[in-house]
Write a structure and sequence with these properties.
By secondary structure, this protein is an alpha+beta fold. The chain has 17 helices and 19 strands. The strands form 6 sheets. It has a 6-stranded mixed beta sheet, with no helix packed on it. Strand 7 and strand 8 form a beta hairpin. The termini are far apart.
Length: 489
């Protein structure tokens, strides 16, 4: 009997050994199944909308069978994109103000751009009440899509367009505290109601060089000119926190730094300058001296990247290009004099320049630019909203306390005084003249903010080919700021 039991035990042991791989495989399969099931639940609960909302997801186009594309409106309830039905029953996208908001709102057809692209999924969703939805379904009618409520202000957008008067360039207006985009205008513009014509034109042999579809506010890369002196000043203040007030430079109109001749604009001879006066008068030789003799290039590179040069911007509502800054301690020293005054290989977009100035106005804290504030259903009921979000501190708050009064002097008696000194409101900012060829032709910049003690709005403007049209960035900015304060009275 005992021998029989031993044989059975041995047999059972051998069977367990033989069955171990099968049992292990069974556990693996069960665990895999549970993991997949768990992920499916997680995906449906948390990720499904995000995947469907991806602008590259073609599934969104199928929604048009059941939903009429929703409206896009400004913060002051002006409809800037809507859907209508023509006499033949075809649904068409209509832009009531033509080219005024074209680059920001974008187009829907021949692909998409701007808000039409970034919020395509939301425009094709409908959250009308259940009774209306059932009624539409029974009547075989489409449900109206949701409405995108932007942060844009119609009057400021219009003021930017009128001030630029058809000259190429761009203007961006931000709320100084929240980072909300109040205006974003790019010129030349196009009429998104005529996309058939526009598309054929830009793809023709004659129009192959056209940049009409380029959003210069977010995609236009320009030499910053003297607006970059703000970055150079920040670096100088960081490296000289205790003796910046002792800085002195004797400007003789032209000087040589690292074997490079640097001249002040218009051949001006500024004489002896302190740091504030150097910035106010935008003295090229003074800033070349700072770059060559007073600051460290590796540290300047770090500061530029902290201000988001060479980095992605915290912005996804429109297509944009990254700004570029290449100078560091290993770079050929002959590049220093031009680079620190905003020439050389440095490139920046108007949006990015506005973000840097917004951070300065906001005590060093950069806000993420916000273009859409909420999404409503067709009845105006809020479905979702986005709050202003901080990107983080990019400039030491103590530095901004020193820098802001300097920027105010730029507008009080310096290079922006002609357009900014006689206002009922105060302005701090920086002008820039950026040469784009060897013949002295240049683009004109202004970037700054209003109400110095408690900043209201930030304006960043670049106007191309100043030599021909003589419309300056500071002039355009002043007209935009005038419109802002006229509207709030």
């Amino acid at each position: 009997m005992e021998m029989f039991l031993d044989k059975e035990r041995e047999k059972a042991r051998r069977n367990r050994i033989k069955n171990r791989p099968i049992v292990l495989m069974t556990y693996v399969m069960v665990l895999t199944f549970l993991s997949m099931f768990g992920y499916i639940v997680y995906f449906v609960m948390n990720k499904a909308d995000t995947v469907v909302a991806n602008s590259a997801n073609n599934r969104q186009d199928s929604f048009s069978k059941f939903v009429t594309r929703g409206d896009i409106i400004t913060s002051d309830d002006v409809v800037i994109a809507t859907s209508e039905t023509d006499e033949e029953g075809n649904e068409i996208r209509v832009y009531p103000y033509g080219g005024l908001f074209a680059h920001t709102v974008g187009y829907n057809g021949y692909g998409r751009s701007g808000i039409e692209l970034a919020y395509n999924f939301d425009l094709m969703r409908s959250h009308v009440n259940v009774v209306e939805k059932v009624g539409n379904d029974l009547a075989d009618k489409k449900n109206p899509g949701d409405t995108i409520v932007t942060t844009l202000d119609y009057d400021l957008q219009n003021a930017a367009a009128e001030a630029m008067d058809g000259v190429n360039g761009a203007a961006v207006v931000l709320d100084a505290q929240t980072g909300d985009i109040l205006a974003m205008y790019s010129s030349p513009t196009y009429d998104p109601n005529e996309m058939d014509y526009v598309w054929d034109e830009v793809h023709s042999e004659e129009g192959s060089d056209s940049t009409v579809l380029l959003n210069r506010a977010t995609q236009g890369l320009y030499a910053p000119g003297s607006t970059f002196k703000v970055v150079t000043t920040i670096e100088y203040l960081m490296e000289h926190p205790n003796d910046y007030e002792d800085y002195r430079h004797e400007c003789i109109g032209e000087d040589i730094f690292n074997n490079v001749t640097i001249s002040c604009s218009g051949g001006n001879v500024h004489g002896e300058l302190n740091l504030t006066e150097s910035l106010a008068y935008s003295c090229n030789t003074s800033f070349a001296n700072i770059g060559v003799n007073e600051i460290d290039m590796d540290k300047l590179h770090d500061t530029a990247e902290r201000l988001l040069f060479n980095e992605k911007l915290p912005f996804d509502a429109c297509e944009y290009n990254q700004s570029e800054f290449v100078l560091d301690g290993k770079t050929d020293k002959t590049m220093i004099p031009q680079t620190v005054i905003g020439q050389g290989d440095t490139l920046i977009t108007p949006l990015h320049n506005a973000m840097i100035m917004q951070a300065i106005a906001n005590g060093g804290v950069m806000m993420q630019p916000r273009l859409v504030s909420e999404i409503d259903n067709a009845d105006g009921v809020k479905m979702s909203s986005t709050k202003p979000r901080s990107y983080g501190t990019v400039v030491d708050p103590e530095i901004t306390k020193i820098l802001v009064p300097m920027l105010h002097e730029v507008c009080n008696y310096g290079t922006a005084a002609r357009n900014m000194s006689d206002k009922d409101y105060t302005v701090a900012g920086k002008t820039g003249t950026a040469e784009y060829d060897n013949n002295g032709n240049c683009n004109s910049w202004f970037v700054g903010f209003s109400n110095v003690d408690n900043p209201d709005v930030v304006v960043s403007v670049v106007v191309e080919d100043y030599n021909t049209y003589e419309i300056s960035g500071a002039y355009v900015a002043s007209k935009i700021l005038d419109a802002y304060y006229t509207n709030i009275e």
